[in-house]
Amino acid sequence: MAKTPSEPEGKICIAQIGAAHGVRGEVRIKLFSDDPNSLTQYGPLETADGKRHFKIVSARFAKTVFVCRIKGLTDRNEAEALNGVRLYVDREQLPELEEEEFYHSDLIGLDARLEDGTVLGSILAVHDFGAGDLLDIVPSRGKGLYVPFTREAVPHVSLDEGYVTVIPPEGLLDEADESERSLEGEGADFSAQPELLDGLKKD
């Protein structure tokens, strides 16, 4: 399956810099891995284009993010300028995954099929808003769907064949159909897509 243009080949996004913390250049970082050591064990993290590198020299957990100090960053204004920067490592540095473990980037672009083989759409992104991973599925037209990335809702993943089987929660497809009908004839733009946030999936 084709990669989303914003995804660099051969790299995995493991974290994203958020807001500045305090006045001494610390930043909040959201980690896309279950292993907190990921912030430091792979050496300096880099941007998607590989032009900038960031060495995390300290990190402490604070609710849902890590408050980190980056080497050479001592000013709040500089820290604020990094808000939204995604941090990558080379894929070859990461450990082999166990069965039923997937990198988010491997799921992006896969077809989402119903149990009868009907293609529902394709996976645009994998999000975590605090209650677990959600597959952001974009149909050929109409409103996108969020399907929980659980064994119950996604019983089968085939990277080789390029698809996942989904069993949407009851009523989800009905809500999407109703939303599409309400937009018909209003010149709705279905091309807008939310920002891609890829990371690591660990059961």
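That was protein one. Protein two is written in the same sequence-then-structure order:
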Amino acid sequence: MKDQKESNNRENGTENGKSRCLCVLSNGNGHEKCTFHHDLELDHRPPTREDLLPEMSRSYKLLLSSLGEDPERQGLLKTPERAAKAMLFFTKGYDQSLKDVINDAVFDEDHDEMVVVKDIEMFSMCEHHLVPFYGKVSIGYLPSKKILGLSKLARIVEIFSRRLQVQERLTKQIAIAVTKAVQPVGVAVVVEGVHMCMVMRGVQKINSKTVTSTMLGVFRNDPKTREEFLNLVNSK
């Protein structure tokens, strides 16, 4: 009976009572196409990334050579290391977890009106072309006896924007993180981004902006609540 129960748990994506993403259980090939991982398993981290600096520097040096450049000339001597350090900074969100960032900044409060923080600056890296996209994030939630320190909303944006991303997934991850932090009645997130992969390459449309949203709980189910949030976000 015990063996059968353990087998059923593995098939259902649980082990020792804890959820696990099925992509690892099924093929061990990582989380590339795993919706569970990207949306819910928020605290996954790769190995210590500073250890990757020498290998990344060598890779950038090889890239320069492949472009026909001389990586030994004066202007490029330190470029591989600088580029590697920059990429580690651009993706530092992989080293951060929701638990570390929240750091006990959840407070019991009998507040049942909407909380909105808007126009949070965001910088991220397109996972398709490894070029930046940037913009602003607006977050609203309707508390249920708990509130979150306001600066923590901006820090949640940093966790997930400082990774290789697509804007659609980034928007959803922010909403799910706020939900996980304070279990509110609902969460709404709107992200407006400018993607350099559309501006400096490809179609080269310099005035294009991409807007994505995620509505959870009452923001999805109640049109009036959603409208109130959008009016607050769009007000000057």
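The chain has three domains: 2-39, 49-90, 101-234. Keep this in mind for the problem set.
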